[in-house]
Amino acid sequence: MTEVATARRSRITPEREAELYAAVLDLLREVGYDALTMDAVAARTRSSKATLYRQWGGKAELVVKAMRHNKPGGTADVDTGSLRGDLHALLAREDDCAMERNADLMRALAMATHSNPDLMRAFRELLVEPEMAEFQRVMQRAVDRGEVRADCPALQYVVHMMVGAFATRTIIDELPPTQEFLRSYADAVVLPALGVPTS
To answer: Does residue 77 have a pLDDT over 90?
Structure first.
């Protein structure tokens, strides 16, 4: 079964896959998740609907994989030698324009997950859980270096803190999240909570 899936997936070149994902995200920005249809994706990308279903199974998987593809690289490979350096390097991977566009998409997708169980499942399995696992490796390196105590109670809330700052920036301050804001938040809130010096 895996060989068949691999053979099917190999029919689409990485360039074509990137083009499809970009079109899906454009449609998602234009109409939102609920109004986005596989018919619309097929028309926008000049693909057959059968190919889309064969490749991605359905709308939820296609949308979440497009989001995942749009993210700048993996988290686990960032290793500057310090947790502060790692957090700042991770935040520097997206410029402010990309961060604002992705914040809008993430908000729309997060809202849609509440009424779409398939989307919630895909979102958790394909985006949240892999990224959490990668980020845990970054945090474990900080523990291994002796920067953070292994029993620090804040360790389990680092992702919650960072995602919370990212998501609420627009609501509270009516401003998009930016690298400068998130770096200052990491220095003022996250690192002190972990007992890590910021200077």
So the answer is: no
